[in-house]
Amino acid sequence: MTELERLSIIDAIRQLKARYFRTLDSKNWEAYEQVFTPDLVADMRDANGQRDESQLTRGAATYVANLAPLLQDVITVHHGHSPEIEVISDSEATGIWAMEDKLWPGEASPLPFGHLHGYGHYHERYVRGDGGWRIAEIRLTRLHVEVS
């Protein structure tokens, strides 16, 4: 693999992650699901400060179907920073992204807080198929969470 090919893969994955954040925050659930492989493994067990075994989901459709009702009435802002992307082959890569998010639930939201401000990391595995690059595995870990 040439350096130009490696850099092209890294750029495609950065664009994929940007689409992840934009479609999540804009509640475009159909487009959000498309950033994942159908057999996605979404591990959010360590996303809220306490390990929650129920937060391991298999399948993009299931993951989005569970997440959408929770966040539909929530203003969310997600930012990803300082990606560390390792290209393994022309069809597989891994990445770690520093992240920060803020959530403001509306009155109809089932979330048990008025505001959340979190800091942590996304740990991901990417694969390239016929539809381009997709997230095959995503795990969120938190360094700090502020809720009120």
**Average pLDDT level:** 96
Percent strand = over 45%
Q: What would the principal axes of the Cα set say about the shape?
A: globular
Can you tell me the number of structural domains? 1
Number of helices: 3
Terminus-to-terminus distance: 49 Å
How would you sum up this structure, described in words?
The chain has 148 residues and is α+β, with helices and mostly antiparallel strands. The protein has one domain: Nuclear Transport Factor 2, Chain: A. It has three helices and six strands. The chain has helices at residues 3-25, 29-33, 60-71, and strands spanning 36-46, 56-58, 74-89, 92-105, 116-129, 132-147. It has a six-stranded mixed β-sheet with strand order 2-1-6-5-4-3. The N and C termini lie far apart (49 Å).
Give a quick set of tags describing it.
148 residues; alpha+beta; Nuclear Transport Factor 2, Chain: A; six-stranded mixed sheet; 3 helices; 6 strands; 50% strand; globular
